[in-house]
């Protein structure tokens, strides 16, 4: 596709010189640069920049534990299992 772009003169001169030094056509250098721009990783947006709040556990008093480790999770699971077991026997 043909299009018209306005490129600042200093930038155009640098790109044109690069193309000549590499033995490439200007359109190929521009197309390659645009492709590289589109596939490069982008910094996260403000919405994405927030840390993920998981895993979250709300205690009975409403406290919020933001950092968990395997030992704490295992203890909470064991406590929950015991409570369910006791309830299943009506105790």
Tell me the layout of helices and strands.
Elements: H1 9-22, H2 26-39, H3 46-49, E1 57-58, E2 64-65, H4 70-88
Antiparallel strand pairs: 1-2
Helix pairs in contact: 1-2
Oligomeric organization of the protein chains:
single chain
Task: Note the gap between the termini.
Answer: 77 Å
Would you report the number of β strands? 2
Low-pLDDT windows of residues: none
Number of helices: 4
Secondary-structure-based class equals mainly alpha
Number of domains: 2
| Global outline | rod-shaped
* Biggest sheet, spatial arrangement of strands: 1-2
Q: How is the biggest beta sheet arranged?
A: 2 strands, antiparallel
Helix-residue proportion? 55-70%
Radius of gyration: 29 Å
* Average pLDDT reading: 80
Beta content comes to under 5%
Order of helices and strands: HHHEEH
Describe the structure.
There is one protein chain. By secondary structure, the protein is mainly alpha-helical. The protein folds into 2 domains: 9-40, no CATH class; 46-91, no CATH class. The chain is built from 4 helices and 2 strands, in the order αααββα. Strands 1-2 form a two-stranded antiparallel sheet. α1 (9-22) packs across α2. The chain is rod-shaped.
